[in-house]
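Before we proceed, please read the two lines closing this message. Tell me what the token row says about the fold.
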Amino acid sequence: MKRNDFISIVLIFGLIASLSSCFPPFKPKEPEIITDTITTDTLLPVKEITDDTLFSIPISEQTVMAILFQQKSAEYRALCYQAFNMARIMLERDLRDENVILPRAVIVDIDETMVDNSPHSAKCIEKATSYPEYWDRWCNLGKAKALPGAVEFMKLARNYGVTLFYVSNRKEHLREATVRNLQELGFPQATDKNIILRTAESGKENRRRAIAANYHISLLIGDNLADFSDIFEKKSVTDRAKVTDSLRNEFGRRYIVLPNAMYGDWEEALYNYNMSYSDSQKMAIRKQWLESF
């Protein structure tokens, strides 16, 4: 090879190697957040089903597959581990941010986020009933199991010096049983001070803001979108999807979502939050939402 050719090759490779320094690190553009408006989804008129032969199975039976998925599928366990692995990665990245001045905190939901309440749903099927039947009895037993990876992540976060807050919509009369259940499972900081239950309102925004007044919130972990922001509360099916799309860069980064196909705001949104519908009407509404071909 001629000397001039060798020099040219070296210069080309040097140019290629320097190109990467010309571009800043990739930072996803934050999409504009949807304003706090509600679009009411149009439902067809729903009539009461009077023929008993069309409604011989309790509506709770429709959750059989969702409960079995949570209790028996390895895929559900994998999704839980995936969520808490991502939470660990994002927390450790946040800990490297030297611009954070306030002490750090992680806010988590309890039900279907830290512990598994699928036995309660199974009891409702067994007894042909639905929530709130048997809920207090189940909680007072204090036998809910931890979700896969939940205790390990919370212990890791606490070892890093992060303060943990359990913000739940369980009611105050279930406090003693809730504290006992979490402590027996080994959850750190499961104390009266750090377990913040529902009082006058079901929305969690004011409770989150009270924490944020004194802490930097590194992560929020939950199974329901309202566990992250009040912008999701009482939104229609259409708007829930739009708001989720507008905040897509937060999921897996600051918002960590656990799967829950058994219950949640997603179902209430199907009925435009009118839970007074009869079981037969709810079944008819559910079928309206199905998309076929």
Remarks:
- Residues 11 and 224 are 56 Å apart (CA to CA).
- Residues 74-95 form the longest helix (22 residues).
- The domain at 3-289 is CATH 3.40.50.1000 (Rossmann fold).
